[in-house]
Amino acid sequence: MLDQTKEINVCLSPALIHLHDIRNSIVVVIDIFRATTSMCYGLANGAEGIIPVAEVSTCAIYKDHGYLLAAERNGEVVDGFDFGNSPFSYVSEKVNGRTIVLTTTNGTKAIHLSREAKNVVIGSFLNLTALCNWLRRQDDPVLLVCAGWKDNFNLEDTVFAGAVINKLKDSHQKGDDAAIAAENLYLAAANDLADFLAQSAHSKRLQHLGIQKDIDFCLQVDLLNTIPVLKGDRLVVLES
Fold first, then answer.
1. Long-range contacts, 213-219 (Cβ 8 Å, 24+)
2. d(Cα 144, Cα 122) in Å, to the nearest integer?
3. pTM, 2 dp
4. φ and ψ at 142, to 5 degrees?
5. 3-class SS at 90?
6. What is the mean pLDDT of the chain?
7. Which residues are 146's β-sheet partners?
8. Does residue 148 have a pLDDT over 50?
9. Per-residue pLDDT, 107
């Protein structure tokens, strides 16, 4: 029988996070298209830290303090900022040795709402196995927080949550129906993630903006071993 403390649950939207006990949990924030993918990629490429903020106005406060400022709303870069949340903006040539202040439509809000958790880490397909290997070694319950789209359910974040649950099935027990549903969605998608997630509303949104390459990048599995963790006000690389 699985250890009863090793439970894994899914929060399908940040609007539901108040229904969960996060203070005693490890929260994994998920925003596959594209924020958490870019966070993982940026830290892997040498960024010193990423400061996630909920509002564009808060991001703007950091101007002229030596930070890179990244702001995205509705899939597009906000005027007046260095870049948005495309992973192609987080290459080493741009971010190595720099601190980034980032606000996005969904992902940074989910991080902000999760900040009272015992630990907050960041998940993407890029670091899927590394993340799951680390979670398997922890003793605390896990809550997978899907950033969704403007507080609504979305497909890609839930499929990723299901991938985590499936990888941890020998060490963690599913604690709610959302976890069961997420794993079933992942199993339906696993043979061809790109084809399955092409159905998603946000995938279509990004396609309309002409950035199919971002979608393709975000669906690469196990490109990285980097796990971002929230320390104080910023995300840094989790030291194993």
1. 213/88, 214/33, 214/34, 214/86, 214/87, 214/88, 215/33, 217/37, 217/87, 217/88, 218/32, 218/33, 218/34, 218/37, 218/87, 218/124, 218/125, 218/126, 219/32, 219/125, 219/193, 219/194
2. 10
3. 0.95
4. -115, 135
5. coil
6. 94
7. 30
8. yes
9. 95
Query: What CATH class has 7-228?
Result: alpha beta
The tokens for 118 are 């015992």
In the block, residue with structure tokens 């106005």: 57
Burial label, 46 (beta-carbon count in 10 A; 0-12, 13-18, 19+): middle
pLDDT tens, position by position, 91-107: 999 999 999 999 998 99
The half-sphere exposure of 195 on its side-chain side, counting CA atoms within 13 A, is 5
C-alpha dist (Å) from residue 170 to 8, 47, 144:
12, 34, 17
* Residue 221, CA atoms < 13 Å, CB-side half-sphere: 10
Paired sense of beta strands 76-77 and 68-73, if any = antiparallel
Could you tell me which of 41, 35, 31 has the C-alpha nearest to residue 224?
41
Query: Residue 76 pairs with which residues in a beta bridge?
Result: 73
Question: Is there a contact between 29 and 106 (Cβ–Cβ < 8 Å)?
Answer: no
Residue pLDDT, tens place only, 48-62: 999 999 899 999 999
6-19 pLDDT tens trace: 999 999 999 999 99
